[in-house]
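ERR on first pass: missing label on line 2. Operator R.T. fixed the label and resubmitted. Corrected input:
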Amino acid sequence: MLPLRLCVKTNNTKMKKILLLLLSIIIFQQAAFSQDAMGLINKVKSKLDKVNDYVAEGRMKTDVSFIKAPAGKVKVFYKKPNKFKLKRDGGISILPKGGVSVNMSNLLTGKDFVAIPSGDSKVGNIPVKVVKLLPTSENSDVVLTTLYIEEATSLIRKANTTTKENGTYEMEMIYGKFASFGLPDKVIFAFNTKDYKLPKGVTLDFDTNEPVADRMKNKKGRVEISYTNYIINKGVSDAEFR
Amino acid sequence: MWKLLQIELFKIFKRPRTYISFAAITALVGLIQMGLYIDGKSYVEFMLRDLSMSFEIEGNILNGYLVCYIILQLLLVHVPLLITLIAADLISGEANMGTLRLLLTKPVSRTEVIFAKFGAATIYTLLLLVWMAILALFVSMALFGTDDMLNMKSGYIVQMKSYDVFWRYACAFGFAALAMLTVAALGFFLSLFAENSIGPIVATMSIILVFTILSTLDIPFFNAIKPYLFTTHMIGWKGFFDVKVSEDNEAIIGSVQNLGKVLQAAGILVLHIVGLLIASVIVFKRKDVLS
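pass 2 clean. output:
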């Protein structure tokens, strides 16, 4: 028979060991998940890395409650590592600040972020892994990016980005012909908009006494770009980004 | 009738005061264009300050189409005063000079005299608008170039493709012609009641000023009477610069948001012109011309 004090001491040691083991498992599992997330990110990156530059043509549609704009042709230029320019094919362009110029390569450039796995979800009917990217640099304009990655194809289906300057915007990608390069056929940007108002005394509007349409009350803006063609890795002049 | 119209046109264009309007418009349009050319950026920044908080806007925003819109917005309130100078003088001026009685001794009916005089006023008004269109639209297009047009309304912004703007201006100037002819008809009608031109000119200007102020004041008490003021309908030309949108909020090229309302406003102006002209004929026929 062991004395009572010795028995308590032995139990304490055992408990400590168990706790240590549990802690190690948690840390190990976390590290393993994190590695999984980084692995997934690296897969996406390697797919995107196939593209050194591209010129894409598409059609842009702006859907903002207080803007009545026609759809127009756009040309998008990209060059590694993070040069991106969207040009409207003639005419005036009204684009959400920051949002449209962010593309997937841009988000994953460099290693200044920590990838945190955040479980599984679905985008439409597609099962996806949710990964949060936290920038490690304090100067980064991006505060948090949440990626919804389809594991089977290593394609980013959706991304939510919160920035310091330009608020939060959501990007949804629909893939087609250029999925092997990780390039979408359609990108939908959604963002919050602020109010627009000018005094009637300044504009002297022709008053038709029509009630304000419901769409005018919608605060969420959308920009939809449907790409019709990509010219990949054929070289893009730096002059296009000025 | 044609001969009578020619005589009336000769009388109008023989007077130096006729050219004051053309000179005034040239000076005003020139000043606005110069101001916008030098510091138009500040004006655009002010108008787009809410939008530029969330959006990046690229392109030639201050182009000839927008400049013309700004000019018309500023001037079409004041041009009626220039038209009044001529229209309100057509009968009363003759009465003042003592030539009205002499004119009526000629073998022409009083109705013909009224139509000839109003016809001459119409030609003068249209020429003034054409001159304004040349300066405000074509000179602005040459100075500021062309691009899509942004119409900054109080609650929303309308973007029109550059190839979808010119026809709108053609319609807007057509509408403006109706608005100005309404003013001419009013001045002409009032000129029947005076023996000198100052009275009808001041009376017409006063009516336009009061009605314009009431039309633009956004006070609920006045909102009820606004539809009955012709000045409310005079800015109907702006209706051509608003477009319809599709289900997914895409602007439909070549459309007009409230075409029905614009046409209704045009109809009301036409009714005013016809009504005032008929009233002028009736009053003039019954008038005992003593001077």
